[in-house]
Amino acid sequence: MNGTPSTPHPLPNIEIKKLDGNPLVWDAFDGKYLLIVNVASNCGFTPQYKKLQSLYEQHQDKLEIIGVPCNQFGAQEPGSAEDIQSFCSLNYGVSFTMTEKVKVKGPQSHPLYKWLTSKEENGTKSSTVKWNFQKYLISPERVLIDSYLSTTDPTSSKITKYFEG
């Protein structure tokens, strides 16, 4: 029926590797909010790494940030896993979780992004990844809360109201 709210579908244990090649273990984040962000090293939004790291340091007891490198927008993430790790570490001191480089839109998008962007899969809402540094917030119950465009500051109260206070 139209207008009937759908039931959210919790994020399944989707296989994705961390930047170091080891599998990401979703259970390690039990009880935490997840902020999943598609990232790139050569983007106008790249300075958001600094605010993401600060947010992570401030709230790592309640929040895990997962950076997902992607080269689909203006070829702004051309490097290897080692290049990405080095860039993030040297320039922004990134200590939050980073995954392997994946596709976040189109028919070859990674299953994680298929879940994030499809209401059929997540039960909450559909969205399109418009550019680098688009953000997806997931509750501790692994339910999609909302998505935020690249222009949304990572420290915006739109995001932080869920885990601050």
Quick one: overall form? globular
- Poorly predicted parts: none
What is the CATH architecture descriptor? 3-Layer(aba) Sandwich
Q: Spell the H/E element sequence.
A: EHEHEHHEEH
Which whole number gives the mean pLDDT? 95
Instruction: Give the proportion of residues in helices.
Output: 10-25%
CATH evolutionary superfamily: Glutaredoxin
Strand arrangement across the biggest beta sheet: 3-2-1-4-5
Q: What proportion of the residues form beta strands (DSSP E)?
A: 15-25%
Query: How far is the first residue's CA from the last residue's CA?
Result: 38 Å
Question: What is the highest CATH level, the class?
Answer: Alpha Beta
**CATH fold assignment:** Glutaredoxin
Helix count equals 5
Supply the helix-strand structural class: alpha/beta
Largest sheet: 5 strands, mixed
Instruction: Supply Rg.
Output: 15 Å
Q: Structurally, how many domains make up the residues?
A: 1
Q: How would you characterize the overall build of this protein?
A:
With 165 residues, the protein is an alpha/beta fold. The chain has a single domain, classed as Glutaredoxin (3-Layer(aba) Sandwich). 24% of the residues lie in helices and 15% in strands. The protein is built from 5 helices and 5 strands; from the N terminus they run βαβαβααββα. The longest helix is centred in the first third of the chain and has 12 residues, at 48-59. The model has no long low-confidence stretch (mean pLDDT 95).
